[in-house]
Amino acid sequence: MKIFTFRAVLLATAVSFFTSSAAYAQSEQVAEQSGSGDDVSISDIVVTARRKDERLVDVPVAVSALGSESLARYGTRQLTEIGMQIPQVALNKGGAGPGVNLQIRGVGSQANDAGVEQMVALNVDGVLVSRGRGIINAGMLDVASVEVLKGPQALFFGKNSPGGVISVNGVLPGRDLSGFARIGYNENDHQRFIEGAVTLPVTESLAVRVAGRTDDSRGYIRNMAQTAPDPFHPGFNYTPAAKWSDGAASTLGRVTIAYRPDNDFDATLKVYGSHYTDNGPSSRAELLRCGNGSLTRPTLANGAVDPYGDCVPNFRRSVSALDPRLVAGFPRTGGAPFSNIETYLSSLNMNYNSDTLTITSTTGFFRFLSDYEESFDYTSLARLLGSAKERTTTISQELRAITKLDFPVNFTFGGYYEHLKREYRQDTMLALVPLPIDPATGRYDTADGVYSTRGDTYSIFAQANWKIVENLELAGGTRYTHERRSGTLQNIYVHPNRLPPVVAAPTNLPPGTVLRPRLSNDNVSPEVTLSWHPIRNTTLYAAYKTGFLSAGISNPGNLAGSATVDNVQFRSVKAKGGEIGAKGSLLGGALSIDATAYLYDYDDLQLTSFDAQTFAYVTRNAAGARVKGAELQVNYTASSALSLRGFVAYNHARFRSFPNAQCFAGQTAAQGCVAGVQDLSGQRLGTSPAVSASAGATYIIDLSRDWKSSLSGDLFYSSSYNHSAGGFNFRPNSIQDGFARVNATLKVYSDTFEFAVIGNNLTDKTYIISSADAAGNVPGTTYGFLGRPREILFQATYRF
User: Fold this and answer.
1) What pTM did the predictor assign?
2) Residues 119 and 138 sit within 8 Å (Cβ to Cβ)
3) Is the peptide bond before 501 cis (omega within 30 degrees of 0)?
4) How far apart are CA 135 and CA 122, in angstroms?
5) Which residue intervals of 349-463 are DSSP H helices?
6) pLDDT class for 501, splitting at 50, 70, 90?
7) How far apart are CA 753 and CA 177, in angstroms?
């Protein structure tokens, strides 16, 4: 806590300096207005779904947008919490690989293979981010809006968006001196945070905004492990890792510089950085079931029993720190699980406007530095240990032009380039049968693998917009993408017992054997949309869309002896389908309606599964899926005091063809496992409930001329779903029953001050988000991630 105190004092001092010098000023920033919780009409909401500013009511895309008011309503602090506010959206921290599971309408990617990129694109300040862990963990800072675009978005956002796009937009500096300071405390995980931002107008044409946040949380998942002798290595001991498994801390900041010398040109530079630490990438995972329910204690496949763990979803787990001598070969020794993540992101957006043309240039830089150590058998015995370092850098450049001709047809066209460089090292200790000390090196660990990936992406895109008549528009376009990837995969160390002729366990690729896969990928993604505005502030549309997820080179974590140039590659995913929608802002903006029906087919889904024979994650193309359904969102401002909101969705997400799905651990022939595979054709995709719904209201009371109070409440409902990771093995006992969550917020505020008590999951409902077979345990053992338990957040804000 000393580190937290130092950072808190430092940030508080900076914020106090700015606030004391500007207490007389009033904010004109949307993100700094008092949190009344009012719901804004979709005729007033501006989104960038087609990479330009448009009213939500006009854009022919299925979009769920959360403005600063909606984000503040329930104290949204991390991107994972967006899934708690928007039905059919799931964002969850993952254990490895990209480190995040993003799903929209049941479509998404797993987070176990570092070579796999996300099927739902994450766009931050105009820059596409391929490693969501760097953003999703550190939290959101000074955010003006979050837009969730559903379905393929290849035309305007390119590759890696067949499931949709989540776009995060930071607050832009205005023309007046303004800002805010906020402190908060969460009683559940004992999180304490302080954040603030200030806008400084330098000249009439230049303004700067500086924002910062620091937080520290104890956590809410109890570690039950105790000090005990290591039964596999006499003379060594296990010691408990952190008492509270999911404790975390982060510090993040953003500087935004906006320059607008005249109406023809503007430029905005944003530079973001964050540092995040926790007790391991799987610090929120726990064992859910042991041995098909027949055991009460976790039991490894070698018969060893964890005396401190259990097999119940109860926010308890058992995790130990190993004797440092056992992990002496790891890059960072110590034996205790940890994560250390640094993220840097910058964007330079420039616009030139003439009477006939708008030209936009977006330059992006993203750097992700990750270092972690984790036990992946989820017991205090820690027989399956992994330590990884990753360094990913992407540089991107997009040029886009939009014509403004006094003519029925106008055009959008441009090009995009991205360069990727990724260095990944995985050190493993995978030994259910303990390995003796390596006499040559003194090491006990299994193998060290290094993976290097280089890639270049080139794409061009164009769209024609034909205004057939004043209120009827036909838009058609396409994006062509050419992508190249090259990789180098090798083991730089393998324990002698993992190599012939000793082999007391699955073999590893011998050191000196290098795999050099190369791949080239081309894709054409067309799109056509017909939009009709029958009356003002209404839109009816029909769209045909396509998209794809990049092909790639697997970084399996454990480079097995069976690895070849061919089997470490996987093809791209392709999507096609369409949707129809209706939007309207009626009754003078008091009533907003947004309805969508959709159907999309996905081919060659990239599936990552754990191969128990080689102790390696394997990614392959193995399935086709169809996702279809309908959504309806309604907002109604009944009076100046009362606003109502509701959302309901039906989603039917199924594998169309999946005859060679991996069997779950322990699956028998009677349960459909033949020669190691099962047929999941017709089964539902993971984390895709058939029905999702929410309903809420906000009521405002005038306390005096300067003070108001607001009370907000929302009910969120999900029907049952398969929580096994991606639904890729469909264990029969991996069904989460339908459940409801209740959130509520009470605020008292003026133009300057705000005090809030925010309650999330007030009924303390325990539910499973995702699960998978627990490697190294007896068959039938599963681990998973639970939704957050009841939380009460106390928050105070000062605005100027």
Assistant:
1) 0.90
2) no
3) yes
4) 9
5) none
6) low
7) 17
Please report, as a single letter, which amino acid is at residue 319. V
Sign of CA dihedral 120, 156, 621, 570: negative
Cβ contact 11:4 at 8 Å: no
793 is written with which tokens?
């957040």
Which residues on neighbouring strands pair with residue 644, listed in sequence order? Answer: 636, 697
* Architecture of the 2-667+674-799 domain: Beta Barrel (2.40)
Contact 262, 282 (CB under 8 A): no
Residue 588 pLDDT exceeds 80: yes
- Average of pLDDT values for 247-263? 95
Reduced to 3 states (helix: H, G, I; strand: E, B; else coil), residue 20 is: helix
Tell me the residue length of the chain: 800
Position 724, amino acid? S
Beta strands of 510-565 (E only): which ranges?
518-532, 538-549, 552-553
Residues 114 and 367: their CA atoms lie apart, in Å, by 15
In angstroms, the CA 420 to CA 416 distance is: 13
What is the band of 788 on the pLDDT scale with cuts at 50, 70, 90?
Answer: very high
- Nearest one of 145, 153, 206, 152 to 175, comparing CA atoms: 206
Location of structure tokens 């838009």: 475
Strand, coil or helix: 326: helix
**For the chain, what are the domain ranges?**
2-667+674-799
Cα–Cα distance for residue pair 527/524, rounded to 1 Å: 10
Nearest to 164 by CA among 627, 652, 786, 693: 627
Question: Residue 281 gets which letter from DSSP?
Answer: T
What's the DSSP call for residue 664?
A: P
Q: Residue 780 and residue 761: Cα distance in Å, rounded?
A: 30
> Three-state SS string across 82-111, please?
HHHCCCCEEEEECCCCCCEEEEECCEECCC
Tens-digit pLDDT profile for residues 670-686: 989 998 889 999 988 88
Checking if the pLDDT of 16 tops 60, the result is: no
User: Alpha-carbon distance 449 to 685, whole Å?
Assistant: 32
Half-sphere exposure of 177 (CA within 13 A, CB side): 10
Cα–Cα nearest to 581, from 629, 626, 548:
629
Q: Which amino acid is at 537?
A: N
How far is 187 from 741, CA to CA, in rounded Å?
Answer: 18
pLDDT tens digit string along 134-170?
677 666 899 999 999 999 999 999 888 999 999 999 9
Residues β-bridged to residue 408: none
8 Å CB contact between 491 and 449: yes
Q: Which residue has the tokens 């009033």?
A: 26
pLDDT at residue number 8: 39
The residues with which 769 forms a beta bridge, in sequence order, are none
Tell me, what's the pLDDT at 10?
33
Q: Using only C-alpha atoms, what is the Rg of the chain?
A: 26
Tell me how far apart the alpha carbons of residues 727 and 734 are, in angstroms, rounded to a whole number: 9
